[in-house]
Amino acid sequence: MENGSHILTLKNGFHLWSHTENSGGKTKVIAVHGGPGDNHESFETLPAALLENEISYYDQLGSWYSDQPDFSDLALAEKYLNIAYFVDELEAVRQQLGYEKFVLLGYSWGGMIALEYALKYPKRLNKLIIVGMSDRDRDFTDRMKDEVSKVLSADEAAYVFKEANAGDLNDPLFNQYMARFYEDYYGRFSKSSTTHAVSTTNMQVADYMMGRNPFQTVGTMAGWDISDRIDQINTPTQFMIGDQDMIPIARIQKIIRHMQNAKLVVVPQATHVVIRDNPEYFFQQLNNFLNN
């Protein structure tokens, strides 16, 4: 694929924005962003750090530069806002980019897509990189409870857990406490340099697929668990998580014992935004995996 931004037209008639850099690089890499409902911006540093590799990333359906259908139409939401759709969307992107085989990098929610893709389309992959994700959704939400308890006082944490259990996610004090937690956690080692006048997260997508309760996934992602199939992934795989990630290190250590060709890289001084928190170490380890 030539360098630059491209509009990919899917067979369903929708359009996705994609971007490619380092065209002609020895390895083709497709990066799949987190969310759901977020966008590609966390990958904008990839091409300069991975100069030997052709890097492509895209916004998923409903995200930022790509088409954003009105998912208040429940028929549309049911058809497209599910894991199976986004796995096949990735395969459509691969076809349009013209990659016979490639390296797949999935970050957070994109890691779910990447793992499911590796199970469904293994012959398309040279290598697999999973950043900030395990093999089941509850690991993230369970660890969220632990992290909140570290930042908030015991009384404050008890309050947010109570309100979340009651489903009162609009409570002002609940949101005040959670905002303080998010500011501490996601700003612990780095600050985002990306600002926008409007929100770039499509909450229709996020709400339908996972809901707004930080301690329990609802919607079409709820209960996602491939732990009984993870041993079927034979693609050379590297899991990468921060030492203070939402994904427990012990869980990934258990996962790789069930895989034939997998390793774990723990990035020091990094939370769930591992690419931003410690880019020097992250890209050193990523380049080692890609180029060896």
UniProtKB/TrEMBL annotation:
<dbReference type="InterPro" id="IPR000073">
    <property type="entry name" value="AB_hydrolase_1"/>
</dbReference>
<comment type="function">
    <text>Releases the N-terminal proline from various substrates.</text>
</comment>
<keyword id="KW-0645">Protease</keyword>
<dbReference type="InterPro" id="IPR050266">
    <property type="entry name" value="AB_hydrolase_sf"/>
</dbReference>
<dbReference type="InterPro" id="IPR029058">
    <property type="entry name" value="AB_hydrolase_fold"/>
</dbReference>
<keyword id="KW-0031">Aminopeptidase</keyword>
<protein>
    <recommendedName>
        <fullName>Proline iminopeptidase</fullName>
        <ecNumber>3.4.11.5</ecNumber>
    </recommendedName>
</protein>
<dbReference type="InterPro" id="IPR005945">
    <property type="entry name" value="Pro_imino_pep"/>
</dbReference>
<dbReference type="GO" id="GO:0016787">
    <property type="term" value="F:hydrolase activity"/>
</dbReference>
<dbReference type="InterPro" id="IPR002410">
    <property type="entry name" value="Peptidase_S33"/>
</dbReference>
<comment type="similarity">
    <text>Belongs to the peptidase S33 family.</text>
</comment>
<feature type="domain" description="AB hydrolase-1">
    <location>
        <begin position="29"/>
        <end position="278"/>
    </location>
</feature>
<dbReference type="Pfam" id="PF00561">
    <property type="entry name" value="Abhydrolase_1"/>
</dbReference>
<keyword id="KW-0378">Hydrolase</keyword>
